[in-house]
Design a protein that fits this description.
Order of helices and strands: HEEEEEEEEEEEHEEEEEEE
Distance between the termini: 86 Å
Number of helices: 2
Shape: globular
Helix content: 10-25%
Length: 314
């Protein structure tokens, strides 16, 4: 029963409750928007952190760029392979002095293993002369002996043997990549302008070779109120990522002197997102045995892009 001298408490009616709810809705909406806005940058930074961690993992992998320890260009005819000083395809110790011979004839490479050598082709024992697929058509055949992996690469009409060692010193001693802090302002949406007719962009690589690469168009974007352009290279069908090789005014100071790489999703509704927080160093930043493509002149930007991967002069 109610206390003496105090009227019994009245329960709020439906109309009062409805008014209270209506008054609370705007506040709830504001609070919800604040939560969403505050979560977006955090979620974005988290996603970039995860992307960078995966990029680092691939670099450190047993077959990553830190494992590359050699590149030998083949001469027509026989090319001995092994750790012997006279071998044309010189392998690091403790590889045997002779592991076999690469024969280059009419653009085809054949490998003949040395007797009593435990060398494998794509994981299976190899005991007879076998033609090898290069990386020109996609996945190359892999020869393995101990911690070493060898495969044929084709660059500018030349054929060579790339050598990887999963126990390489650079891989064992790598301290990790360094990056600019993540800034969402460097995630830029650009306008994609397709070329009216197919266009080939001449790309020079680290060897001085020139290859014409297909470019579907260019991306125009704005930084600091000024418009810039980048020409991407098409690396497949219409659903394949766009590949940008670019250089900016941080090159040689805080970023790799020759330039950096950036991948982007294909155009959607005439737009392309360029996320410079994912700008990465080319393989040449990690090994002298890479054949990296260099930025075309039109992709040298007169602006500092202080985002993406940093470079320490080694």
């Amino acid at each position: 029963m109610p206390a003496i001298g105090r009227p019994p408490a009245r329960k709020p009616g439906r109309a009062t409750l409805a008014r209270s709810v209506r008054r609370a809705i705007p506040l709830l909406v504001v609070l919800l928007q604040a939560v969403i806005l505050s979560a977006q940058p955090h979620d974005y930074r988290t996603s970039i952190g995860a992307w960078r961690a995966e990029h680092d993992r691939k670099l450190r992998a047993e077959d990553g760029w830190l494992a590359v320890v050699g590149l030998a260009w083949l001469e027509p005819g026989e090319n001995a392979a092994g750790s012997a000083a006279t071998a044309g395809v010189r392998l690091p110790a403790p590889a045997p002095p002779a592991v076999g011979r690469f024969r280059l004839e009419r653009g085809l490479v054949t490998f003949t293993p040395a007797p009593d050598t435990d060398i494998r082709l794509n994981g299976r024992p190899l005991g007879a002369p076998t033609p090898l697929r290069s990386d020109a058509g996609g996945a190359a055949d892999k020869l393995s002996i101990g911690s070493l992996t060898l495969y044929v690469i084709e660059r500018g009409g030349r054929l060579g043997i790339r050598i990887k060692d999963s126990n390489s010193e650079p891989r064992r001693q790598f301290a990790g990549e360094r990056w600019y802090p993540v800034q969402e302002a460097w995630r830029v949406t650009g306008r994609f302008v397709p070329h009216p007719t197919p266009k080939a962009v001449p790309i020079v690589n680290a060897l001085g070779q020139v290859e014409n690469q297909p470019s579907p168009g260019y991306v125009a974007f704005t930084i600091g109120g000024r418009e810039y352009r980048l020409d991407p290279i098409a690396q497949g069908g219409p659903d394949a990522p766009l590949f940008f090789i670019f250089k900016d005014r941080t090159a040689g100071a805080t970023t790799y002197p020759a330039g950096r790489f950036l991948y982007a999703d294909p155009p959607r509704d005439g737009r392309v997102e360029l996320d410079f927080n994912k700008a990465e160093n080319p393989p040449c930043a990690f090994t002298p045995f890479a054949t990296c493509p260099l930025p075309p002149k039109q992709n040298e930007l007169p602006v500092r892009i202080e985002a993406g991967e940093l470079y320490e002069h080694r």
